[in-house]
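Closing statement on the uridine 5'-triphosphate sub-project.
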Amino acid sequence: MAQTVRKAVFPVAGLGTRFLPATKAIPKEMLPVLDRPLIQYAVEEAKAAGIEHFIFVTGRGKGAMEDHFDRAPELERTLEAAGKTKELKALADLLPDAGSISYTRQQAPLGLGHAVWCAREFIGDEPFAVILPDDMVKSKVPCIKQLVDIHAKTGGNVVGVMDVPRDQTNKYGILDVSEDDGKLAAIKGLVEKPKPEVAPSTLSIIGRYVLLPDVFEHLGRKEKGAGGEIQLTDAMARMIGGKPFHGLRFEGERFDCGSKIGWLAGNIALAFDDPEVSDALKDFIRKRM
Ligand code: UTP
């Protein structure tokens, strides 16, 4: 039987250059979508999938995230005195259990693979989830739970995938597939950011993974890949051929909130579902169109 996935890594040390100057002094992961920061959606998704330990790989200037998941006694007292119980509850709900969040620093942004490697001592020898908070997924079943459920059946590595237009393969890790039932694809190769003309498919990895701890051995070699960065895709590629490795076409809508258009679309999608703002927003858009 597959081991339970209890831990999730949140690599949040990137510089967020696509969103400058907004991300100069605040972390990209603290950009709000509707009424909460990206990192909160990611943590809530993990919690809903049964994750018990949340490991943040942060960097310099990322302290706002630690404050976000801590008590704010002065603010809480002020809200209490003003009788703002709804707001107080929203703060209480986002507080993780004491000791369930750990932070480690990636001292330099050497790549996603290196960021994940920085979490190795917290993970130890068990399967774990990786969630990139700037990829927000709106779905009925939390996206990472869909991957965890597949891992429970296969006992192997699982990555969240979606089809992208061929001219965008150079932005993603792309799958070379051996078998595909339309939902689950068995992986025989992985390539990071291939040019459209050489991409083995258009099935691309988004920011959701369930990985076996064997990946740390490969990441530990610190080999540089595409863009001179230590790529998670390259380390994953070295695991193919051992334990099962699948790409899951997850159910849900993914927003790349690290890009302006993805962030805007994510805001609109969530706002359309929010009774507090939905009608007013639709009215505004109608008038603008
Ligand atoms: P991205 O490439 O989307 O993030 O990395 P970025 O580098 O911050 O953004 P841009 O491209 O400059 O706008 C995907 C995820 O990996 C993390 C990022 O924080 C993001 O969550 N990451 C990336 C690290 O933690 N460390 C790195 O060295 C690189």
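The radius of gyration is 19 Å. With this model delivered, the sub-project is considered complete and its resources will be redirected to Aim 3.
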